[in-house]
Amino acid sequence: MTTITAAERQAEDERRAAPARTTVPRPYQGRARPERRRPGTVALEDTFDLVGALLAGGSVATLLFGWIAPLSGAVGWVVVAYLVFLISYAVLVSLRADRLAVMNRIVTVLLCSAGLAVLAVLLFVVLYTVGRGVPALSNLNFFVETMRFAGPLDPLDVGGIAHAIVGTLIQISIALAITVPLGITTAVFLNEIGGRFARFVRTVSDAMTALPSIVAGLFVYAALITLVTKERSGFAASIAITVMMLPIVIRSADVVLRLVPHQLREASYALGSSRWRTVWKVVLPTSRSGLATAVILGTARGIGETSPVLLTSGVTAEMNTNPFSGPMISLPLQVFTFVQSPEPNMVARGFGTAAVLILLVLSLFVVARLIGGRGAGILSDGQRRRATRRSQDDLIRIVTRSTLPDYAVPARTRPQENP
Hints:
The chain contains 16 helices and no strands. The protein is an all-alpha fold.
């Protein structure tokens, strides 16, 4: 039997009463260093499960459509193969994982499949349109000439869509000049002012997002062309496009401005800034990228409209740069008129015009992302150089004031003493 002395008992009590100290163990002492796994990598077993399920889906679908069942069709083969793939993948994952992990993998596969399906459809539309329009796009005259002296039976080296390109740019420019300030101002009013009238405006803008385009064209035709101008023009088409773009811009900008943290507004108010200066200096710069996306969505909606333009702008084969006088055709309306013809050359011109419209939308998207792609506080190269230059000027001015005597410092730069 071990006897514990009073001194040892006191030392043990003091050790227990003392606060516990954190000790850092030596890494891998007496053990092998484990293999590191980089985030985002896929384990080898997961790859085997995925590849095996894909092979199983393709094999079972091929057996059913080729040997066992009287089935045919590429779409049916893809559907059956995908269903068998999902079942096989779930079974393979369940062999070494629980039910929650199986559901997680299946949902991940479904989401990835949806994204790939959307991308495949987009690529198919773009490639098919460009492919059918290559005979027209390969001729330079297609971009610089009009259809004034070209007929349905003329070859593709005669005539072009320069008048439609110019008309589209003029119409969408007028529509953007009206929509962007009005839409963003309305969104700022809905978020910063509020009230009963703001709720009414939000309800109306939400309802207008589902407005059929033909209704907008009929409204502009009845209210503007019939009563005021008495003729179809590019300006009337721009007003019809504005009616279609405005609710999209308002709704998108409204959602973006709601995401701005209220702490930024409160910090600006705490520094003594007014409401509108807070909106101009804090809220709008913070949501610049989202507002650019809202403008992109509105532009994509307006630049592809055909029904309101058909009723308001008119059809012409000549160049018209005056939006207030005479008909002015646009690219969507030109596509509509081209594909109505049974002649192969006219159909090729229609697909070439559609390809030009797609490229135009892509160019506008790139420009908008370059303008609004930077987040709040991220300066461009020119802004960074100007800020550095201003900082250097401030440093030189401060050093000069501290080294020169008082009589050498200009009176307007001396600190004012309290009387």
